[in-house]
Write a structure and sequence with these properties.
heterodimer; A: 252 residues; alpha/beta; Rossmann fold; nine-stranded mixed β-sheet; B: 308 residues; seven-stranded parallel β-sheet; five-stranded parallel β-sheet; globular; binds flavin-adenine dinucleotide; binds adenosine monophosphate
């Protein structure tokens, strides 16, 4: 079985985001970019399936600017076998919408015929949490989002999902789309020798046109603004003082 | 303009808070038809019919919908979609699972975690862990959106709107439910509680979490946790508050042994009053706290529990 892992290049989760003064977006020039953390978990899970003999090949795919090559190389250094880069824009500020991403991925799936796709549950830049579900719709496959654990047996996968009430375990027919939650695994770091090896692994370059997908966005960003700021608070010196303040506020 | 709004129903029980807050957001868009789905959904539908602003309730009651699996529920919504301009739901894990699938089946984009309705095509939603707010205008013929309930007030009551049955849709037969692991609790539900007490890595262990829980019980509060506390096994996953967990905005939020990473702040910074208890005076949580207390939580929290 082949496993396909879509990986997104996003602002590093440690970077403090700055909204541009003219309201046109968030400043992404010269900031540290990394693989979306949920996608690292997805790559890790795919590699573990390969190590367990369940998967034969792990393919990482990224859609966006050509710099997403670095993200793919990270996936290759972790242990993926090959990569596909779909260059859909040359502007780092242009976020490709999940519907477009899913349409391109659906075409990649037609060509590659993977038995399983593992996405992140959410990109930490747009916070949409949509691509995996959309891809499942377009392929007509089952979906198992927010995976906390994943087991493959034959033509089914059993997935425990992190949901509002706790954990829900479902069994889905393969091929299927799984999206990762934080507790699925702890992704490995790529070792230096593996980083060197990754440079020689195949990376195929494509465009949305190659797949016949119209990448025109459906949503127009009217403006991007700062969230409302909280008024400055105060430090209290003791539990008694805290209790008094909370009583005065009427919250306890 | 007409809105189809998926009611939040679990095992036959309506989540009145989430559904009612979503109705508040949706009623500006047009007449709201609620969709009640489940193996048992009638009673929940009757209850939901009394939410102010609901014009009609559709009930799809069938074993097929027992566990709100994404594929059958999405197929049902798509079968009804023709009559509506907007398809919406409260942004729960169930709806976040289902609505993007609906959107793609309709060939439209999805707008998740909407915090503001500007007009029928234009919506506000937080991005980058709430560090920016984006206003987006949809060019799609139909809009599919999930609504972040913490930013809307609950709707009032009305005399019951009509309730009608709808036919079930085809079963895609792609997935089946195996089991649920749900912790029974007498505490209020995290996303609708008036007070939330959350613990972080500083709490140190699952046993020590009892300190946090005692304070919560004294206040009649819900208990939350940071990702670090969940990852370390101190607390269950459904207690996680944050960018990729639950979003809460109670009247009072008490953060205990939590440093205040942006991913955590994303889930609680709209709380009305924030209290932070942390032994590190430099902890970033103090920057959003209304009242900060520097101290060892193992001293401070029991003392606070006693004195409240
Ligand atoms: C993709 C992604 C998604 C994430 N999503 C979330 C999310 O949804 N929610 C979330 O919370 N985090 C999330 N995080 C994690 C986040 O970045 C932080 O790592 C996490 O919030 C830290 O948890 P913490 O504050 O409990 O732990 P720490 O940062 O380790 O802080 C522990 C605090 O406890 C204090 N402390 C220790 N002992 C005591 C004591 N005895 N008395 C008083 N204070 C004490 C310390 O001074 C410290 O400030 C996410 C991260 C990533 C990468
Ligand atoms: N441009 C992209 N390229 C590759 N994968 C993506 C892209 N956008 C989203 N994904 C995948 O879809 C997941 C969810 O993203 P989103 O729906 O944008 O929150 C991510 O974790 C990735 O696995």
């Amino acid at each position: 079985m082949k496993v396909l892992v879509p990986v997104k290049r996003v602002i590093d989760y440690n970077v403090k985001v700055r909204v541009k003064a003219d309201g046109s977006g968030v400043d992404l020039a010269n900031v540290k970019m990394s693989m979306n953390p949920f996608d690292e978990i997805a790559v890790e899970e795919a590699i573990r399936l390969k190590e367990a003999g369940t998967a034969e090949e792990v393919i990482v795919v990224s859609i966006g600017v050509k710099q997403a090559q670095e993200t793919l190389r990270t996936g290759l250094a972790m242990g993926a076998d090959r990569a596909i880069l779909v260059t859909a824009t040359d502007d780092v500020h242009n976020d490709i919408e999940p519907l477009t991403v899913a349409k391109i991925l659906a075409k990649v799936i037609e060509e590659e015929e993977p038995g399983l796709v593992i996405c992140g549950k959410q990109a930490i830049d747009n916070d949409l949490n949509a691509t995996g579900q959309m891809l499942a719709a377009l392929t007509g496959w089952a979906q198992a989002t927010n995976a906390n654990s994943l087991e493959i047996d034959g033509d089914h996968a059993t997935v425990a999902r992190e949901v509002d009430g706790g954990l829900q375990t479902i069994k889905v027919k393969l091929p299927a789309i799984v999206t990762t939650d934080l507790r699925l695994n702890e992704p490995r770091y790529a070792s230096l020798p593996n980083i060197m090896k990754a440079k020689k692994k195949p990376l195929e370059e494509k465009t949305p046109e190659d797949y016949g997908v119209d990448a025109a966005p459906r949503l127009e960003v009217v403006k991007t603004s700062e969230p409302p700021e909280r008024a400055a608070g105060e430090m209290v010196g003791s539990v008694d003082e805290l209790v008094t303040k909370l009583k005065d506020k009427g919250v306890v | 303009m007409a809105v189809l709004l998926l009611a939040e129903i679990n095992d036959g029980t309506l989540s009145l808070d989430a559904t009612s807050k979503a109705v508040t957001a949706a009623k500006d868009l047009g007449d709201v038809t609620l969709l009640a789905v489940g193996a048992s959904a009638k009673a929940a539908a009757e209850e939901a019919a009394k939410i102010e602003g609901v014009a009609k309730v559709l009930v799809a009651e069938d074993d097929l919908y027992g566990h709100r699996l994404a594929e059958p529920v999405a197929a049902l919504i798509v079968s009804l979609a023709g009559d509506y301009d907007h398809i919406a739901a409260p942004a729960t894990t169930d709806a976040k699972n289902i609505l993007p699938r609906v959107a793609a089946l309709l060939d439209v984009m999805v707008l998740t975690d909407v915090t503001g309705v500007v007009d029928a095509d234009t919506f506000e939603r937080p991005i980058y862990a709430g560090n920016a707010v984006q206003t987006v205008k949809s060019k799609d013929a139909k809009k599919v959106l999930t609504i972040r309930t913490s930013t809307f007030d609950a709707a009032g009551e009305q005399s019951a709107a009509p309730v009608e049955d709808v036919a079930k849709a085809d079963d895609p037969a792609l997935s089946e439910w195996v089991k649920d692991k749900v912790a029974e609790s007498d505490r209020p539900e995290l996303t609708s509680a008036g007070i939330v007490v959350s613990g972080g890595r500083g709490v140190g262990s699952e046993e020590n979490f009892a300190i946090v829980e005692k304070l919560a019980d004294k206040l009649g509060a819900a208990v939350g946790a940071s990702r670090a506390a969940v990852d370390s096994g101190f607390a269950p996953n459904d207690w996680q508050v944050g960018q990729t967990g639950k979003v809460v905005a109670p009247d009072l939020y008490i953060a205990v042994g939590i440093s205040g990473a942006i991913q955590h702040l994303a889930g609680m910074k709209d709380s009305k009053v924030i209290v932070a208890i942390n032994k590190d005076e430099e902890a970033p949580i103090f920057q959003v706290a209304d009242y900060g207390l520097v101290g060892d939580l193992f001293d401070v929290v029991p003392e606070l529990t006693e004195k409240l």
